[in-house]
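Tokens help. Our protein:
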Amino acid sequence: MGKPSSRRADRRKSRKGQDNMYTRRNSRPQAQRAQNTPPPAEAPTRSSKPKQATSSESKLGSHLDMEFDQEDGLSGFRFIDVSLLIEFVSKLLCPTCKRPMGENKRLSHVSESRSSLASKFEFTCQCQMKQSFWTSAKLTKTYEVNRRFAVAMFAIGRNQQQGTRFLGNMNMPASMYKTSWVHHKKAILQATERTAEESTKKAAADLKAAKGDQVTVSCDGTWQRRGFQSKNGVFTLLSADKQNSKVIDTVTMSSYCDSCAKNKKKKTPEEFIEWRDHDHIPKGECDKNHDGPAGGMEAAGALTAFQRSVDQHQLKYVSFLGDGDSKAYASVSSRNIYPNLEIKKLECCGHVQKRMGRQLTSKVTELKKTKFPKNGKTVTGIGGKGGLTKKAILAIQGHYGAAIRNNSGNVKGMKKAIWAIWEHRNKIHDNCGAWCPSKKNPPEDPNRNALPQFACEAIKPVFQRLSDDVLLQKCAHGGTQNTNESFHNIIWERCPKTVFVGRPRLAIAVADATVAYNDGELGRLSIFTKLGMPQGFYTIKCFQELDRQRIRGAGAALDPAERQSRRVVAHRNEQGHHQFYDGGAH
């Protein structure tokens, strides 16, 4: 009888013929090695459905990296200590004298010449034989490492000065002269805008195929500074699709030109006008494209986007989803942009919801000195303890927004739900929703949040205005401008509001954000191609992982438990706890 096996019966047998981290690349079949090439660069959109990540997708280990390197050859850029490189080369044999190149240090030496971040090293042997190489591939009029450095700085929201500081901390030579940086910026702007144009045209074509040539768009403006004092602003126009919203058009506005500002100081008024009108503006070098206050940028941008919609995308924007107090709609509705076709105004449900809070707060301020009888006594105002407090206003505002969203397409049901909020505060609970304490299990006192009779009568006009049929009809779609706000966030990540920039720099951020929003990070690979650079293995790999992380994060954000957690945090903030952020402060 043979010796019994010590292997557990339930353990799987090891598979034969599988590679491990020590497998040599030449010992595997060519077809099997081909599986280690990066997947094709298909860019998932921001609205792609999240999927469960596999272990191979989430674990990008060093062994996997090394296998890829061995298959495709070492590629990309590395940080390297020059002294170690010189020491290594000095030990190599000279092809002429067959002796180590650094054997006689008096007769051999190494010299370096640089073009910004690209270096040329020349090694001279003691026999005077010379060997040299550049540390970066040559592109048209520049080197790849210099162009990539500028692209990387713009992508993370930084400029030349921050890039120079980074290189200094890394003990690397200074980056490049101002003229070289401007040259790179112009090339990157052209490539990024061309890529963004392709992305928006594809998004518009998809929208036309799904909705026809008369579509609803969500419009909004964003500025680099608050208080309508900004010299830079952006108008954004997105498709009003809750599930798959895309950027259709953007207009970058600026009331400042750096060249004009400098020449105005150097030249006399006559010389400046002659230079500007006969040399600067005709050559298209002036960055200023808006006159007047910053508040007019949104209206001017909207008019530009609507007027070119047919020529640019073969679309007609017949429904305008925007702010209630925006001047942009008035600028497009007053013009006969589409003959015999009226542009319909739709309200953003989020902004309409905020009106409830603002108008109730204004009512409290308006009546703060008014006397009211209460239980045989006289009280002043409708606010304060037992009245319309800040907490009560936030709760009413939240219920008002829910009444609109939960009754999309049903104006009658919307109106009934809105008045149920007022009735609840007036101790009438016939039409209350699930938010009423009487609906809990076990039921609780429904009148614990009731307002005095005089307070209910005082705020009744607010409910009458905000439950008007005309207003609610504009909210029947149930949509918001959250997609615009999300896109604005991506723009200012690439061009922080803390540092003033000119229009070209802002335009790069807008175009780059457009591509990333519509097509994911992988969509940005086309920018590298247009700049004449290889996309790069590690660039593709990084962008794939960033897109996977974003999709997984979006899926986690939709998880019911996560959404409930956010509601709890919001409720705590309403009570005055942990207020790390104030709306509109940034």
In short: Residues 178-211 form the longest helix (34 residues). The chain is about 45% helix and 10% strand.
